[in-house]
Amino acid sequence: MIAFYITFMREHLLTPSLSASAPPVSLYSIRSSFFVAFLGGPAAIILYSTLNSWRLRRALDIPAYLIAIILFVLLIYGTRGDAAYFAWLRQELGSDTTRFLSRGLALALCGVFYLLHKKQHRSATLFDSKAPSPWIPAIVSSVLGYAATVGVAALLLRDAA
Fold first, then answer.
1. Do 141 and 110 contact (CB within 8 A), yes or no?
2. Residue 101 burial (CB < 10 Å; 0-12/13-18/19+)?
3. Which of 37, 41, 102, 117 has the fewest other C-beta atoms within 10 Å?
4. Which UniProt keywords apply (predicted)?
5. Quick one: which of 66, 28, 26 has its CA closest to 46?
């Protein structure tokens, strides 16, 4: 009985842990994420990083994206609405306050989303896997992110007026 148990345990340890049914996934590079965050803003990096999570099939990232969306809406409301959350900063920076805070939030979100996928990015670097071409998803995310920013701002300003 004990010999059977030991043999069964050895066989279990010798079975391969990786299967052919789940091939490794290549993520979009962190460089392209940085450019999307810098040029496209918070909504664009949220959309772009969602593509990486979708490629990984990770539903665990959903709370992080919901928090990012809430921060994005609060940023727009705090800088463009009636709320004077950033009034002191607006006095110092003038009309560029929204742009600076938006870019700062986008870069911070880029860092947070990198930390979510750090293990996959590092393994891709270790195995020298080729990242997929980011051009089309980056451009689409930037355009949709800009449209989302304008749409949310219009909704918030419509309610404020």
1. no
2. buried
3. 102
4. Membrane, Transmembrane, Transmembrane helix
5. 66
Residue 49 near residue 72, CB atoms below 8 Å = no
Total residue count of the chain as it appears in this document: 161
Global confidence as pTM = 0.80
State the amino acid at position 38 in one-letter form. Answer: F
Is 80 in contact with 51 (CB distance < 8 Å)? no
